[in-house]
Design goal:
binds zinc ion, disordered C terminus, binds adenosine-5'-diphosphate, single chain, disordered N terminus, 14 strands, 23 helices, binds magnesium ion, 45% helix, 5-stranded mixed β-sheet, alpha/beta
């Protein structure tokens, strides 16, 4: 909260009170007004009569009051209540309940004083009419009455749309509320330099992406440098990558550092309840940018509009989104490539984007913002550790190793969780153990103190986890063990934690060894309990995926051969018609079964051959709940390493989708 002590003595509490008005309260006066108007119009309306009739009624002594407005040459007559009955037939048989009862008009030459004077003089004192005259015109109140309804309608409309805008979330660019009068206007925001505090320094790691983005900024700053050589300046760049890797952050940094106007909008801002609004917002956004001459437009989460057209047409028929996308495509074609407008967009679903968006001349470039590697994770930690008071035992290397597969956002979260954990334990500084706790919690979920396990369950889980740990310990390509624990977290009743080496390339022998350690839990259960339990579900799920992956995706099966039925283009061409015959499908299933059986037998042999050690590990686990690699080493000897001869040289060919696994369970 802002501290506002200006002009007050030091130490005073801030005096600014925030009064929040719930907009709903504004409806109440309107409703009252409308009800009032309806109510006041109830009953028989005043009748129009001639001046001659007025004279007649006054002479009969029935008039209580005459109200006359000089400037308007208009007056009203109120009858004495006891005489009202006489005039019922003039009101269609009803007795009017509301005064005045008659209205009349006179000519501009009417001399009010004289005429009313004459009328009253002829009457006895008690039956004279009270005459009220005024100069004020009723013009204004008339106009007001006329305008009231339209004004009310408009106000209610505006309020209604505000309400809707709020409910729909608005999005970062939306800022709450749609004004119905400019629903078609872009909600893109021109970034204000002063408000953006993010610089390229705040984006740690991501060196490649940073460089490419900086180059784009340079295109805008010094276009001549490129156009002189005949180069065409790219119109757009697409930031793609998993969520939380810093795409939006990178764009914010561009806004903070580029000396050009920066418009930012979220893809969902184009998607609106009104037909045609999305398209006109796109048009408006580009028009605004063109006005500035040089500009950067950033469209976050572009998949909201950029989804491939025509897919699922039969189900959704979302023409509105297609119109918006078409307009976007047209706009990106529309500006001359050297006009100084560059469009940046971000998405984590590049696979569903319309191919037309990504063709050269629109988003010419794709900038990949991937999950950070070990060194990058250290840099990101540095950024987020700034405000945290660290204990002396903090060990960056371990922590960075523990966070394989974490995105930048996860790391930011881990730092915060660590600080919270430290506070929970009343530590003066944030200790290494607080970080470990935070990371465990992020990976596997919160510790389940409420899970109460029977001794038998505990025994089974201990052997299951020991099975994993021992198998991977004894296999040359099993992951390095970090710890094994019986503490339930999230859905898992126990977990074996590994430090996966972050590799881009996996050999068949390595995959096989990892499958063995996955099935190790199940095999251990069979050995100890004589029957399987549900505890291995997650292991088996991953095992199945890996096995089918080996057969169908990586071409690692001799029977099927070097074929890959994985479709990385995102066209989903194989969704409805498989490119292989029923026979091949059967062969693949059989191959997977053989593979898993092979792995099962191998694992069973390992655990039986080392039964003594395996049982000791399980026993120690039951005693201590959490054991570490050192404890396992004491029982089984040093971890079996790949022999140098058979160890394949690791080539550095990069592959995009690395399997990030911070294995647990
Ligand atoms: P997305 O890629 O999904 O747009 P964001 O840019 O919104 O991810 O990142 C979310 C948060 O994660 C950022 O606000 C920042 O705190 C943190 N973060 C992500 N990547 C990085 C990074 N490379 N360096 C520093 N912080 C990062
Ligand atoms: Mg984002
Ligand atoms: Zn398991």
């Amino acid at each position: 909260m802002a501290q506002q002590n200006k002009g007050k003595k030091k130490g005073n509490k801030p005096r600014v009170k925030v009064i929040r008005i719930n907009l709903a309260w504004l409806y109440i006066p309107f409703i009252l007004l409308i009800v009032g108007m309806l109510y006041s119009n109830k009953g028989v309306p005043a009748q129009k009569i001639e001046w001659a009739q007025v004279q007649e009624i006054v002479r009969s002594g029935d008039v209580k009051e005459i109200h006359f407005v000089r400037n308007d040459f208009e007056g009203t007559v109120t009858i004495r209540p006891d005489s009202l009955g006489k005039y019922a037939e003039m009101f269609g048989g009803q007795v009017p309940s509301k005064s005045p009862h008659f209205t009349f008009m006179v000519s501009t030459k009417f001399d009010a004083e004289k005429e009313f004077g004459l009328l009253n003089e002829a009457l006895p004192e008690e039956s004279r009419a009270k005459i009220v005259m005024e100069n004020d015109s009723k013009l204004w109140s008339g106009i007001l009455e006329w305008m009231l309804f339209p004004i009310l309608l408009i106000l209610m409309w505006v309020l209604m749309f505000r309400g809707i805008g709020k409910n729909m979330g608005g999005g970062p660019g939306g800022g709450g509320g749609i004004n119905p009068f400019n629903a078609g206007k872009s909600t893109g925001k021109l970034a204000d330099k002063k408000n953006i505090k993010v610089t390229f320094k705040d984006v740690a790691g991501q060196h490649g992406a940073k460089e490419e983005v900086m180059e784009i900024v340079d295109f805008l700053r010094n276009p001549d440098k490129y156009t002189k050589l005949g180069a065409r300046i790219p119109r757009g760049a697409l930031l793609v990558g998993p969520p939380g890797t810093g795409k939006t952050l990178l764009a914010k940094a561009v806004a903070g550092e580029a000396d050009v106007p920066f418009f930012s909008i979220s893809g969902s801002d184009f998607v609106e309840m009104f037909v045609g609004v999305g398209a006109s917002r796109v048009r408006d956004l580009f028009a605004q940018a063109k006005e500035k001459g040089k500009a950067l437009i950033f469209i976050d989460e572009i998949d909201a509009v950029g989804r491939a057209r025509g897919r699922n047409a039969g189900f959704s028929g979302n023409d509105e989104r297609e119109n918006t996308l078409n307009q976007l495509l047209a706009e990106m074609d529309g500006f001359d490539s050297n006009s100084g407008i560059i469009v940046l967009a971000a998405t984590n679903r590049v696979d569903i984007l319309d191919k037309a968006l990504m063709r050269a001349g629109r988003f010419d470039r794709q900038i990949y913002v991937g999950l950070p590697e070990l060194e990058e994770r250290k840099e990101i930690f540095q950024v987020h550790l700034k405000g945290i008071s660290l204990g002396e035992d903090f060990d960056m290397d371990t922590i960075a190793k523990h966070t394989a597969g974490f995105s930048g956002a996860d790391i930011a979260n881990a730092c915060n969780e660590a600080a919270l954990a430290a506070a929970r334990h009343n530590h003066v500084k944030v200790l290494n153990s607080d970080f470990i706790e935070a990371i465990d919690r992020i990976v596997a979920g919160i510790e389940r103190k409420d899970y109460i396990l029977s001794a038998e369950e505990k025994r089974s889980i201990a052997h299951h986890e020991a099975g994993h740990a021992v198998t991977s310990w004894l296999l040359p390509h099993g992951h390095a063990l970090l710890k094994v624990t019986l503490i339930p977290r999230g859905n898992a009743l126990g977990a074996a934690w590994y430090l996966p080496d972050e590799r881009k390339l996996m050999f068949k022998s390595e995959l096989m060894d990892q499958m063995c350690s996955l099935i190790g839990g199940r095999v251990a259960e069979e050995m100890i309990n004589g029957e399987p339990s549900t505890g291995a579900q997650n292991d088996l799920e991953r095992l199945t995926k890996l096995a089918y992956g080996m057969v169908q995706t990586y071409g690692m099966s001799n029977t099927i051969g070097n074929l890959s039925y994985y479709d990385s283009t995102g066209d989903r061409a194989y969704d409805f018609n498989r490119p292989y015959s029923e026979k091949t499908a059967e062969a693949m299933d059989a191959e997977v079964k053989t593979l898993v059986a092979q792995i099962h037998d191998k694992t069973l042999k390992i655990l039986t051959d080392n039964k003594e050690g395996f049982l000791k590990v399980a026993q120690l686990l039951l005693e201590k709940e959490t054991i570490f690699a050192e404890d396992v080493e004491k029982i089984l000897g040093p971890k079996v390493k790949p022999s140098t001869q058979s160890s394949p040289e690791v080539a550095e060919a990069p592959e995009e989708d690395k399997e990030s696994d911070n294995s647990n369970e």
